[in-house]
């Protein structure tokens, strides 16, 4: 799964519009499908993630939340709004992924 | 002798003509005393709310049900909070909304004229903050004042039209505005081209909360007014390096001048615009929680012991803004004015938060107006109604069947 996710990120990095910086930004109107490796859907709708058919998989195979309840689920809820993927270059980010204090 | 007399006459004639000409020339009119305007309501407000004040104020001047003259002064949210909490009067000549009779050529796109404030100042009837008042003063309001949450105000990061940038992540923003020149975030690594506000302004308070940057430590060129940020960004000669902080409704009125970046918050997977697309105006992502930098506007109002505004005029104005049904009935649907100015009535929100930059939780308004909101934006599948009959278990609100 992790390898698959890295592949998707790499796909967007390669396909995204590159500006003058090292980051990539890709606007797109559909979410990538996390099924058998295909990427964007053509209907502009929300993702239709494949699941194992169980009633509640905990969104393990989803890119978004269908029935958000918590803050993190709300901000990552499924939507047909335009969404922009960006992988910024952050040279000052701490090795553990935390942000350094502002002086 | 005759020549001298003729010269004198000529000079006299020229002088008379000049005097007559001067009489016919339009002289700058002396600003009238503010108190001479009918039913004045004195307001101190954040400048992001000026479009609403001008548009609603124009309707109030023309109203026969409840004619009112909106007289206002714009200042930072923290300043107006301090003024209201301490009973500070308006002593600087404020702006006012003219009637059609007074100025048939005025419309809300034009600057408002000013009037002369009474000697000694005039008390503020209502103060309008454009973010959580607790960000300025964490204490409860003094006795006799109450905070009413108004429509939601979103904020964003704007760039020049020529910029190729389309999105900002919270992590980038942290380094851009927290570290400035040393943040190493390309292309925003030159504070000369970063246009921010001061720590007392709601725009900065709300946007920096979204980035976890202390508002008093924000890097960039501080501008006192939203219009100054807009002008600086629009006129920049370094499009890629330029970025500014702006209220979304100011941006909405100036989309021909600047672009707004999509924003990705902490723990968020994608960046989103305030609207469903860069060209839409539906504020879909603010309403459902995908777009994070927003806060409610807050109305600070003098109230009685039951929490009811002590001034009938102020109560009426507040009812209009909140979408309550004022008495007497106003000639137009006031929520339409609110929505058209890029603000989101609380009744149309699907999420809420309790403090600046706080986590979102789901919100189910007791008096929803999502159908009406969607109808103003152009599309709704809701049933139109004039009473509850076609609404089944729901209720007819603002002309549409809502769930309750």
Could you outline the blueprint of secondary structure elements for this entry?
The complex is a heterodimer of chains A (103) and B (404).
Chain A: H1 2-15, E1 17-18, E2 24-28, H2 71-75, E3 83-87
Antiparallel strand pairs in A: 1-2, 2-3
Chain B: H1 2-24, E1 40-45, H2 50-62, E2 69-74, H3 77-86, E3 95-96, E4 126-129, E5 145-160, E6 167-169, H4 170-179, E7 194-196, H5 202-211, E8 221-222, H6 226-234, E9 243-247, H7 248-252, E10 258-260, E11 262-264, E12 271-272, H8 284-288, E13 294-302, H9 312-322, H10 334-340, E14 351-352, E15 361-362, H11 370-377, E16 395-397, E17 400-402
Parallel strand pairs in B: 1-2, 1-4, 6-11, 7-8, 7-9
Antiparallel strand pairs in B: 2-3, 4-13, 5-9, 5-10, 5-13, 14-15, 16-17
Task: Label this structure with key terms.
heterodimer, A: 103 residues, alpha+beta, three-stranded antiparallel β-sheet, 2 helices, 18% helix, extended, B: 404 residues, alpha/beta, ten-stranded mixed β-sheet, two-stranded parallel ribbon, 18% strand, disordered N terminus
Task: Characterize the structure shown.
- The complex is a heterodimer of chains A (103) and B (404).
- Chain A has 103 residues and is of the alpha+beta class.
- Chain A is built from two helices and three strands.
- Chain A has helices at residues 2-15, 71-75; strands at 17-18, 24-28, 83-87.
- A three-stranded antiparallel sheet of chain A has the order 1-2-3, with helices on one face.
- In chain A, a hairpin with a 5-residue loop joins strand 1 (17-18) and strand 2 (24-28).
- The longest helix of chain A is centred in the first third of the chain and has 14 residues, at 2-15.
- Helices cover 27% and strands 18% of the residues of chain B.
- The longest helix of chain B is centred in the N-terminal third of the chain and has 23 residues, at 2-24.
- Chain B is an alpha/beta fold.
- Chain B contains eleven helices and 17 strands.
- The N and C termini of chain B lie far apart (97 Å).
- In chain B, the strands form four sheets. In chain B, strands 1, 2, 3, 4, 5, 7, 8, 9, 10 and 13 form a ten-stranded mixed sheet that branches.
- The interface between A and B is large, with 36 and 46 residues.
